[in-house]
């Protein structure tokens, strides 16, 4: 098929493209297309093939897909996520599509794995053997990662009720390969995912670090002839940021939780016990509950910590992250207009209402003490840290922001496309020591967490509650209850409500889901969480119109800002329409056209 040959030739040509987002980890790629056999004698060329996997990491930046959930709207009419909320999400118009990049990533990894042992990685034979082992492990890890993201975005039921994943391809493809392959079942894809994780874990260290004693050399590497110097050369701390065993185990936790969730559990072959056990492996290696970062809930505002980060070093909260860079991009997009921002992402009233009172009770509970006339008083401290409320102080000059009706540039009624649509602006992720005034235009250091330990804690809490009950530990040192209590304690939230439900699995489930909504907000989780839970996805996005009365009091009126129009089949994302046109063996998910 001509299309397939072109696809393959394009990928071969792309092997030699520069790896601009991974310059810190890979040598610049060679500019001329020298052919694949050149890999054997040129390690940097071979690294270019592996590096193509790193350039396709789906969690490399925040997608802000909360705009397509009940947590946020955008004031940008061209926002792709905003377009799909009207029900126009389609197989040929899918902002959540990961098929092409992840499938291409797998093709690169298959190509690399077929040749990694032929590459002359170093003049020293022991070092060359160690490099081959490490890079093979990285390729298995990346291939597993791509499978996870493909299943999350494209796994679903066909018209016959079979839960399908994607075609499983583990060998390199050429112009003579059979590209027209059917999708394997979701369960078979999970088996392939776990097998790649196992292969990666057999080769990779848990963390890259320099050692000083021969006693610190793992048995596998010792059998290969490694000494201290050679081990540091190949597995030293300078490689932090590349795939390691801890990252692999974290992805195994993420994938197992996905597979055990209501949307997939009946045919995935993975249950909540397995998901809890996999999450606990990651947490136990980090000290269990004692490893929870006391300041992890506001990692984005730990400015001294961020400024002091060096290459390869992670804060306590961060399991894996992207590189640090100096910019003001998020602030330009999301600061209020009076501070020269575009105010793009507007948290909803739905999201604000999800924050409990400081005593831990939901605002709808009579025991909460919530006062509708003063709705932000006595709330969970995370609310003011994550959301710009009316009269919040923002930016390097602590400018007071007025979002109420008549609040001028920042008010809900000012001008469509520039000011908030909900009465709120986003504060989370944004540094407050930035001044966007054109004559100042300051920049500060930022980084994107790819995996936070808080996510793994919440993975465990969700799975453990389902598998062992709220206080069951399943052989581990902590329960779902223990995790939520620790998260509340570090954020300054009371636990009276938690104590009252610790014997109720259903109530604990809702609390855990709410904690996940809050703690991982604006980091790209809720769009997928609602779907894997098969939770309601059509809740209208609400805002608040605060009106200042003549006597100085305020009136708060909830208003509908934007409808959500998702059909039930949209719990599962589609296979790209063009792929189904090209390949007759590809079965589309049910009801997608």
Key structural traits:
Serine Threonine Protein Phosphatase 5, Tetratricopeptide repeat; two-stranded antiparallel sheet; mainly alpha; 21 helices; signal; two-stranded antiparallel ribbon; 39% helix; SusD-like_N
Explain the overall architecture:
This protein is mainly α. It has a domain at 49-67 and 74-290 and 573-582: Serine Threonine Protein Phosphatase 5, Tetratricopeptide repeat, CATH 1.25.40.390. Helix content is 39%, strand content 9%. It is built from 21 helices and 14 strands. The chain has a two-stranded antiparallel ribbon. Strands 2-3 form a two-stranded antiparallel sheet. Strands 4-12 form a two-stranded antiparallel sheet. The radius of gyration is 25 Å and the shape is globular. The two termini are 24 Å apart. The model is unreliable at 1-32 (pLDDT under 50).
CATH topology of the domain at 49-67 and 74-290 and 573-582: Serine Threonine Protein Phosphatase 5, Tetratricopeptide repeat
What strand order characterises the main sheet? 1-6
Low-confidence stretches: 1-32
Indicate the proportion of strand residues: 5-15%
What is the helix fraction of residues, given as a range?
25-40%
Shape summary: globular
Count of beta strands: 14
Distance between the termini: 24 Å
Q: Could you tell me the mean pLDDT?
A: 93
Helix/strand structural class:
mainly alpha
- What's the gyration radius in Å? 25 Å
GO cellular component, one term: cell outer membrane
Keywords: Cell outer membrane, Membrane, Signal
Protein name: Putative membrane protein
Domain RagB/SusD: 325-592
